[in-house]
């Protein structure tokens, strides 16, 4: 994960961005994106999937930032 985040930073993405952009105004629970959300999910999904494959006792794998924003990346139970 560190390598992927460093590469994103090297490409000019602000991986420390905390300027949350609300996606669902007026709805709860609130959902937010950051400037790096799309590329984060694209690059880190394989990493998270790899954790789940290598560690069969692990139920989910997520990344959180310093503000506890979670980008849920979970494929083990896609129909739940």
The global form is flat
The CA-CA distance between the termini, in Å, is 26 Å
H/E element sequence: HEEHEE
Strand order of the largest sheet: 1-2
Question: Which structural class do you get from the secondary structure elements?
Answer: alpha+beta
Number of helices: 2
- Portion in helices: 25-40%
Number of strands: 4
List keywords for this structure.
80 residues, alpha+beta, 2 helices, single chain
Give the structure's gist in a few sentences.
With 80 residues, the protein is α+β, with helices and mostly antiparallel strands.
Question: What's the helix and strand layout?
Answer:
Elements lengths: L1 H9 L10 E2 L9 E2 L3 H18 L6 E4 L5 E4 L7
Antiparallel strand pairs: 1-2, 3-4
Describe this structure in words.
The chain is of the alpha+beta class. The protein has one domain (2-73). Helix content is 34%, strand content 15%. It is built from two helices and four strands, in the order αββαββ. The protein has helices at residues 2-10, 37-54; strands spanning 21-22, 32-33, 61-64, 70-73. The strands form two sheets. The chain has a two-stranded antiparallel sheet. It starts with a helix and ends in a 7-residue tail after the last strand. The mean pLDDT is 83.
